[in-house]
Specification:
By secondary structure, the protein is mainly alpha-helical. Helices cover 82% and strands 0% of the residues. The longest helix is centred in the first third of the chain and has 42 residues.
């Protein structure tokens, strides 16, 4: 690799980091939009139950992702760990959903099968490619160098992703 190519990659990383951060904020706003009705119900209705699964349901996309995006944009190591952990969670979750959608396709033969939510495998495949691209970018050496990421930070991000997945099961 020539010196000019190395310099171009170093100057391109912060610009791409900003774009990924903006994308993450847009994903947060989309999540907020799609979850607004349930969040409003949970905040207004006195019979709403704020147990651990419900808190975790809102915590992942409405707190972890925007906090990670903001800290990631500010070039904080904690932002890299949160963003990487969240994308690890999304990757594991999407792979599991894809497996479930493939193994249990929507049953359109009866009314019960029509009423159950079904996720098309092709949209999950596209989402998987998108998440893989984001993870590839986050784990690139140039990006890790910007955040001074070490093996312990990578382990922390992987642990966070797994913990977020386990919290979805609880």
């Amino acid at each position: 690799m020539t010196d000019s190519t190395h310099r171009t990659e170093k100057t391109a990383a912060p610009k791409a980091i900003l774009w990924l951060s903006i994308l993450m904020i847009l994903l947060f706003l989309y999540q907020m939009y799609t979850q607004f009705g349930l969040l409003k119900y949970m905040l207004i209705n006195s019979s709403a139950k704020w147990d651990l699964p419900m808190v975790m349901y809102f915590l992942r996309p409405l707190l972890v992702m925007p906090a990670g995006a903001i800290l990631f944009a500010l070039h904080k190591k904690s932002g890299w760990v949160l963003s990487s952990g969240y994308f690890n969670y999304l990757a594991i979750n999407t792979i599991m959903l894809s497996y479930f959608a493939y193994r249990h396709p929507a049953n359109t033969d009866n009314k019960i099968g029509l009423s159950l939510p079904a996720t098309p495998v092709n949209s999950l495949f596209s989402w998987t490619i998108f998440i893989a691209g984001c993870l590839y970018f986050i784990y690139k050496k140039e990006v890790r160098d910007v955040y001074a990421v070490n093996k312990l930070n990578i382990a922390a991000a992987a642990t966070l992703g797994i913990a977020l997945c386990i919290s979805a099961i609880l």
